Amino acid sequence: MTKLKGALVGFGQTAEKAHVPAYKRAPDFIIEAIVDEHPERLELARAALPGARCYASIEQLFQKETGLDFVDIATPPALHARHITLSLQHRCHVLCEKPLALHPKNFDSIRALCLSENRVVFCVHNWKYAPIFLKAAEMARAGAIGAVRHAEFHTLRRAPASDAGGPTWRLDPIVSGGGILIDHGWHNFYLLQALMEGPAKTISAHLILPESTGVEEEALCIVQYPRATALLYLTWRAHRRSNWGVLHGSAGTLELRDNLLVHAANDGATTQIDFREKLSESSAHPQWFQTMLDTFRDEIRRPEKNHQNLQEAEACLNMLIHAYESHRSGGKRITLPLPAPVLYAKSSRAPAGRLRPPANSAAAAQERTAG
Questions:
Q1: Partners of 34 in the beta sheet?
Q2: CB-hemisphere CA count at 13 Å for 239?
Q3: CA 164 to chain centroid
Q4: Domains of the chain, earliest start first
Q5: What is the per-residue pLDDT across 291-327, written as a single tens digit (0 to 9) for each?
Q6: How far is it, in rounded angstroms, from Cα 229 to Cα 265?
Q7: CA 317 to centroid of chain Cα atoms
Q8: Residue 232 in contact with residue 203, Cβ under 8 Å?
Q9: In degrees rounded to 5, what are phi and psi of residue 204?
Q10: pTM above 0.85, yes or no
Q11: Could you give the strand order of the β-sheet that contains 29-35, starting from the edge strand earlier in sequence?
Q12: Is residue 166 over pLDDT 80?
């Protein structure tokens, strides 16, 4: 079958170390063009993908390229909505780094446009494809621990991930839209969706926001499900880098110790499975990205799978928005809106709320001007 021809927009560390190695090994995809506003990054892009044509802006890309099947967006969060919209307007499928959008109104516009253009918008939910998580999810679905009653994920980092050639944009609220909740919370939100029965009902959150940055560097979230609970702890202030998780069920537990999966049954039997790669080993994980590309391909080529990832991303955005709302209200438990799959059958809805931008962000300034 013909390869899907794509353009990579944004050539930072994530694109260089995760996306490009994955595309080089993926049989169904080829990157034919690269966009980055920094000349030095374009030089590195030319070296990484010698056959790709390079552009300084997404506008230049669409002026020259007319045969693209998809666009892979690996730019900072504040640019996602605009880049997704331009790509859909040029009838390209979209693969986009998380978060897909920062505001429900942007998400609603993206969804309406992808439905009207009959195109796929797919968020990079790559942690779902980590071998240790795939195995844990498989065992949980097979009933290895019975009904899941509680889940926890702890993400410990000593600092936010660095950027190519300069200070990290993750500490700039204008560019990032937020802190560790956006950087790692989004990952945890979709992991919970893959494990828990039924949609999340409520969320509460407590955040630590240093005055020096204005974005949260530490977060504790508690999520309630119809028959289970979950706890998420995320920090950029740890003394070491690690990932840990546990699923407690009616018949046992599954513990994810970075690269070790431990199954303990209620009868005392214990088994361990070692994995080659630690969850905390790096920020790139090209193999996870490559595995995820198969799902992106299937959404494009198999209409019955359209928009499954987009619905997952909407749930992540809802949890993100309401976690921030909970923090602003002193950690109050906030009821989450119910999912409405019918919206993906060529319909739309009014925004249910929005993520309030940081006070010093461009979005907040726009709101003040409009008001």
A1: 8, 54
A2: 0
A3: 20
A4: 4-125+337-370 (3.40.50.720), 127-274 (3.30.360.10)
A5: 999 999 999 999 888 899 999 999 999 999 999 999 9
A6: 20
A7: 10
A8: no
A9: -130, 150
A10: yes
A11: 53-55, 29-35, 4-9, 70-73, 93-96, 121-123
A12: no
